[in-house]
Structure prediction request, 198 residues.
Amino acid sequence: MEEQDKKVRLYGLSTCPTCKKVKQFLDKHNIRYEHIEVDLLDSGEQWVTSKELKRYNPEVTYPTMVIEEVIKGFDEEAMKMALGIK
Amino acid sequence: MTPERFYEVLVKYAESQGIQLNKDKEHVMGILEGLLKNESRYSYRSCPCRLATGIKEKDADIICPCIYKDPDIKEYGSCYCGLYVSKEWNEEKIRHIRVPERSQYNSYKGAA
Prediction:
């Protein structure tokens, strides 16, 4: 499989149909992602994960997808594209 | 209770409230399955689109129908999870947007 430059993480709940829709979308497009079903974690892990999610989404709502772009070296074009610099 | 029977009950409940269930039945059935799963693990039907604490008193606001349902339907035409909607929302006379979270429940999880 071709290397995927963007790292994708999906925070969801096992009971949430909208989370399932996002998951199906990613699967349909063959995107690799880390899938965290927060309700299935133990309470300590839920606490840590909620803190982590809050950094990206202060509402702490589900589903939340985080897409991280990896840019290696000084790649001006890639940095501009990723940061929306024209 | 089966999701199908639950659906029949909620159709009547929604009618009695002057609202409707989302016309996307697949979405609705997913919510109902989530509600029943939450009932089996917490003993109450907390919103399947929100992370419950498992402590009923703390989750009281997000037990379905949540206390935010009416203001959300009034403002956005849909409740937070998209189970209950207005007639206008189902008829697509209202733009379908993601309903913002009104609950501060996540503070219970130490996320605040």
